[in-house]
Amino acid sequence: MHETLRLSKVVRVDRKRAFEAWTQPDLLMQWFGPGQMMPSEAVVDARPDGALKFVIQGVSPRSGQEMTITFTGTFREVIPSEKLSFDWVVAGDPGEPTLVTVEFKDVGAGTEVVLTHEKIPNEELLNRNRLGWGAMLEKMASLLEPALAGQTRNV
Q1: Measured torsion, CA atoms of residues 73, 30, 107, 8, in degrees rounded to the nearest 10
Q2: Which residues pair with 85 in a beta bridge?
Q3: pLDDT tens digits, one per residue of 110-133
Q4: Residues 109 and 10: beta-carbon distance below 8 Å
Q5: Nearest-angstrom CA–CA distance, 55 and 68
Q6: For residues 116 and 114, what is the distance between their CA atoms, to the nearest angstrom?
């Protein structure tokens, strides 16, 4: 039996900006990695059957060890400012690719980013993904929101 993880984070930016944070390598390079881990490579071809690849490096918040982790996948669905869905392969993990869907929904304060990670093979990986994705959503929000605050002051 497979596990499913669902997380959400409200960010005070519009859907277009939140979507760009997931599809533009220059933005991904600033937040995609849990804890102190940061990407050394981000390749995103955000179209159906387009490839994605992230290489993150640094001290793992889970193990405290210096690590390099490679993630690869293929986009299944891309709806600008609304939805991304992609196969997700973590180098060294067992089993078939998992499936990650990121949805961008209007809410009063901005955009709710809803991440659903399906086909996770076991509870250990479910917990690892909960920690990793949760930390990364926080970093994404802290990247996007100061920019918004700066724009607001300059209006």
Answers
A1: 50
A2: 77, 101
A3: 999 999 999 999 999 999 999 999
A4: yes
A5: 7
A6: 7
- Could you tell me where the beta strands, DSSP code E, fall in 12-128? 38-44, 51-59, 66-79, 83-90, 98-107, 110-120
The total of other beta-carbon atoms located within 10 Å of residue 104's CB is 23
Q: Using one digit for the tens of pLDDT, what is the confidence trace for 42-79? A: 999 999 999 999 999 999 888 889 999 999 999 999 99
Task: Give the tokens for residue 83.
Answer: 């939805």
Q: Which two tokens stand for residue 101?
A: 């869907």
Q: Residue 62 corresponds to which tokens in the numbers above?
A: 């889970």
- How far apart, in whole angstroms, are the C-alpha atoms of residue 155 and residue 150? 9
| 107 alpha carbon, distance to own chain's centre | 19
- How many CB atoms are closer than 10 A to CB 75? 19
Distance set, CA 129 to CA 46, 57, 107, 138, 154 (Å) = 22, 16, 25, 14, 38
The SS3 assignment for 90 reads strand
CA–CA separation, 6 vs 98, rounded Å? 13
